[in-house]
User: What shape does this take?
Amino acid sequence: MVVILDGKATASAVMEELRARVEELKGKGVTPTLALVLVGDDKYSRRYVRMKARRCGKVGVEAQLHHLQEATQEELLALIGRLNGDPSVHGIMVQLPLPEGFDELATVEAISPDKDVDGLSPATLGKLLMGEGCFHPAGVEAIIELLRRYGIDPEHKRWAIAGLSNIVGKPLAALLTNMEASVTCCRASDPELAEYAREADVLVVDVARKWAVTAEMVKPGAVVVDNGNNYEGKKVYGDVDFEGVKEVASAITPVPGGVGPLLIAMLIRNALKAAERSSV
Amino acid sequence: MVVILDGKATASAVMEELRARVEELKGKGVTPTLALVLVGDDKYSRRYVRMKARRCGKVGVEAQLHHLQEATQEELLALIGRLNGDPSVHGIMVQLPLPEGFDELATVEAISPDKDVDGLSPATLGKLLMGEGCFHPAGVEAIIELLRRYGIDPEHKRWAIAGLSNIVGKPLAALLTNMEASVTCCRASDPELAEYAREADVLVVDVARKWAVTAEMVKPGAVVVDNGNNYEGKKVYGDVDFEGVKEVASAITPVPGGVGPLLIAMLIRNALKAAERSSV
Assistant: This one.
């Protein structure tokens, strides 16, 4: 029987644990605080930041919202500089993508590494590659956490990652090269994608194409992680043909309800870690 | 017939080209300058730094040797700080490994990204992973350059990298994830190494074991890059059984005389690039 990797239930369990840790930290007089920086007026970004703030509130983390409706790159960098220097702020997250004209690289580079709880700055990603301690991007942590909660050890497995973004595929591959695991990386448009997918014990799909991975592309007994979010109207579809693939896989994430619900929990966990460190 | 990828001849050709570029730059009044920082008294490190200085001299790059016989971490960081601020210094290379007690990570982190011609700081490696412009480690550049000089396009190939160091395997994999190529990464001790090796169109071996890769582990027609340096007395052996594998491969690097001779040339090329940029 296939195991459905339930991200919603897992996120609830994680959030419960975070709430207890926040409580303990507050007992020491520290209120874990995450600065959420939103630039411009994109509807989706606004909604996502609001959701992050709400979830912070649920576990007792203070979300400090900085909404720069109209700002220059310089003003944005100045804000990040102030947040870097503010000891009451433990983590900084800048909602991407930034509006046109902004330099995303320079922006994430400006975040102090010990507050880079989104894990997306070059210095943080470089440490991840080197196997040095750092915050891992939420998309990476969500996948590893989900597997572990279902007793699936990420080590001693052959992984394949189809689709290589800077926020999931590439840093996940980098993490795996520092573990007792092997990993094959291919881009979303690779003509041999099906072949690589079929070799994998753990298959991560992030190709932004509805149902791109079908049952015959999956090794029997494999674990399949679907990172897809393909909208058709209000309905969202994964990159994996769930109905077909669940007959072949040993475990699979649904979409929605797989990796997605864990993303904010992982961000909050990083912010809490940053606060815990600062309180030692 | 197998093609022997001759690193010595390739390095000579590259050095010729670098000499011409240095000449041109000097015509504009800029002397490209590479600071070589050596700490302590390790015989091998001293010899290697001297060799780097000599090769710089051969193409007209000024090698500025800083030998800290006995120094503290603070003194080392202060030196790097001065070199960062010195406009006549275009590149900085700190010879690793550092003596016991030194913090290598903090040391490479201190090098300004625009002078990090060794490409080993977290910020540089993170940019490499993200596909942003940066200096690539010499070990990575050497492999790509050697293939290109023999007309072997690194793209549209299936790569395997056996053995994942911070200076070759991991950054090479990161580079490939930003190219039209696929790559399988496994550690040197992976029990499935033979299987992964056999799948590869381009196989990079860096496992620190004499002749660990034999003919039956290589796909017929594959390109094989041997990064091994296993000394027995004064004789050096690769990680690949050259005599056996050359009967199967379409191209192969010898050891010695493969990737090795290109390493210093690639470092110098990075330093020259840094100088060229600073002169614009």
Summary: The radius of gyration of chain B is 19 Å. Chain B has a mean pLDDT of 97. Chain B is about 40% helix and 15% strand.
